Amino acid sequence: MDKEKAKAWAKKMWKEWRSTLFLIVFVIIPVKSSLADFNWVPTGSMNPTILEGDFVFVNKAAYGLRVPLTLQRMAQWSGPERGDIIICFSPEDDVRLIKRTVGLPGDLLELRNNQLYINEQPMPQTAIDPNALQDLSETLRDHHIFAVEDLDSCKHPIMITPGVPAKRFFGPVVVPEGQYFVMGDNRDNSRDSRYFRFVPRKNIVGRAVGIAASFNIKDKCQPRLSRFFSNLK
C-alpha cells in the first residue's frame, strides 16, 4: 500500500470510528471508572450473600467522586456504613476485593469463636430462613452452618465451616481514623482484615448494590435466573 492509499484508508477509518472512539474515551471509560461498573466475583469469600459467578453492580459514586482511572478523589460526601458491601483494593497486595464493612473508624472490635463484638457489644446471630439458601449447592448447604448476623440493623447471612482451620478469634483492636475493618460473610474462608488489618478510605472503590446477572461457574455456567437483577444487603 503506497502512502496516498494509506492516508486515504486512515482518513476513512477515522471518519467511521471517531464517534465510537470519542464515546469510549470520553464517556464509557470515565463512567466505568468513576460512576458505575460491574464486578465479576470469582471466589466464594462472600457466600452465601454473593456466589461465584455473580456479576455485581457497583455504585462508584456512593461515597464520593474519583478522578477517572485513579484513586484520587475530587469530592467526598460520605463513608461506608456498617454492613455495606464494598469493593476495595487490598492493602496487602492491591488485589481487588469484595467484602462487608464491619468496623468503622474508632470502633473497638473483637471476634470470639466467630461471634463478633463491636464496642464490647455482641452482634446478635439468629436462625436463617432456608429459602435464603436456595441458590447454594446441596454440598454447601449440608456441610456448613448458617446464621443471620445483625450489624446495627443491617441483617445479613453468614456461613461457618466446621472442622477447618480458620481465624475464629481476633482482637480486640481499635479501628484507626480514616480506615475500615472488612470481613467476608463466608467467615472461615475469607482473607480479610483479620489478616491484612485495616482498609484505608482511599482504597475503597465503591459500594456493591445489586446483582445484575449470575452464572454457576461450577456447573457449565448455568444461569441462576432467580439472582438476576436482585438487590444486595
Keywords, please?
37% strand; 18% helix; 233 residues; globular; 18 strands; alpha+beta; Umud Fragment, subunit A; 3 helices
Summarize the entry for a quick read.
With 233 residues, this protein is of the alpha+beta class. The chain has helices at 3-34, 138-143, 193-196; strands at residues 36-40, 54-59, 64-66, 73-76, 85-89, 96-103, 108-112, 115-118, 121-122, 125-126, 145-151, 154-160, 170-174, 179-183, 199-200, 204-216, 222-223, 230-231.
Give structural notes.
This protein has 233 residues and is α+β, with helices and mostly antiparallel strands. The chain has 2 domains: 1-34, no CATH class; 38-231, Umud Fragment, subunit A. It is 18% helix and 37% strand. The chain is built from 3 helices and 18 strands. The protein has helices spanning 3-34, 138-143, 193-196; strands at 36-40, 54-59, 64-66, 73-76, 85-89, 96-103, 108-112, 115-118, 121-122, 125-126, 145-151, 154-160, 170-174, 179-183, 199-200, 204-216, 222-223, 230-231. Strands 1, 2, 5, 6, 14, 15, 16, 17 and 18 form a 9-stranded antiparallel β-sheet that branches. The protein has a 4-stranded antiparallel β-sheet with strand order 9-8-7-13, with no helix packed on it. Strand 3 and strand 4 form a beta hairpin. The longest helix is centred in the first third of the chain and has 32 residues, at 3-34. It is globular and about 75 Å long. The mean pLDDT is 86.
Q: Describe the global form.
A: globular
Q: What's the helix count?
A: 3
Assess the beta-strand content as a share of residues: 35-45%
- Overall tally of domains: 2
Rg (CA only): 21 Å
Mean pLDDT: 86
Total count of strands: 18
Structural class: alpha+beta
CATH architecture of the largest domain, by name, is: Ribbon
Helix content: 10-25%
Span of the ends, CA to CA:
59 Å
Topology pattern, helix = H, strand = E? HEEEEEEEEEEHEEEEHEEEE
CATH class label of the largest domain: Mainly Beta
